[in-house]
Amino acid sequence: MSLHQIKVAREDVLKIVRENKEKHDGILKTAIEGYWIDAEAHLKKFEKEQVDKINKNHKLQLKSLRKQRKEALKSLKTNIKTDLDKVKDRNREKGFIFWNGTYPEDHGDDYNGTIRRLELCVDNEVELDSEEFDSYIRNKWTWKKSFLTCNSAYVNSWATSSYSIASHNPSYAVSASYAITGSCLALANF
């Protein structure tokens, strides 16, 4: 018997892939929330830095440049407001002016395709090669490292944001603590 290709009960594989997809979806959901938190934080920080820079430069400018300063501040505030409105609306369709964060990776379709193939399979057993076994059973997909690398920063942002809210609202502290712990465990166990 070769371990490069094995027979496994279809229902067992289907159950495992569904469980792995739930883990994936949990990390993705949290990462997307963290993405929006990072976008907002970046934009607010960028606005402050730019306002400070414009104000500092203004002190060095001659009277003839005051109009340009006023226009630059107005333009900056308008563009930051546009970006923050996109963050509020969760709209990344047309891109941002001052935010270039990478949107969280989503590989849910890989799970959905595998689940659908297993649901439609008429055999009670399925043969898996080594790569399929690693992906479906061990949840070691070829994209796993990039998924965790891309999404872990946003999961951490979400956890930090939850902790910050908890420090101002004691009734929220316990649930935020569980959420942070759960997010860290989800990443570690994926």
Q: How would you describe what is shown here?
A:
The chain has a two-stranded antiparallel sheet with strand order 1-2. The model has no long low-confidence stretch (mean pLDDT 85). The protein is built from six helices and two strands. With 190 residues, it is mainly alpha-helical. Helix 1 (10-60) runs antiparallel to helix 2 (66-88) and helix 1 (10-60) crosses helix 5. The chain is elongated. The two termini are 30 Å apart. Helices cover 73% and strands 5% of the residues. The longest helix is centred in the N-terminal third of the chain and has 51 residues, at 10-60. The protein has one domain (5-45, 94-189).
Task: Write the topology of this structure.
Elements: E1 5-9, H1 10-60, H2 66-88, H3 108-120, E2 125-129, H4 130-136, H5 144-168, H6 170-189
Antiparallel strand pairs: 1-2
Helix pairs in contact: 1-2, 1-3, 1-5, 1-6, 5-6
Notable characteristics:
190 residues; mainly alpha; two-stranded antiparallel sheet; 2 strands; 73% helix; 5% strand; elongated
Class from helix and strand fractions: mainly alpha
- Strand order within the widest beta sheet: 1-2
The rounded distance between the terminal residues' Cα atoms is 30 Å
**What gross morphology would you assign?**
elongated
Secondary structure tally, helices: 6
Q: Name the average pLDDT.
A: 85
What summary fits the major beta sheet?
2 strands, antiparallel
| Count of all domains | 1
Evaluate the radius of gyration. Answer: 24 Å
Secondary-structure element series: EHHHEHHH
User: Which percent bin holds the helix content?
Assistant: over 70%
What is the number of E strands?
2
Low-confidence stretches: none
Q: Estimate the strand proportion.
A: 5-15%
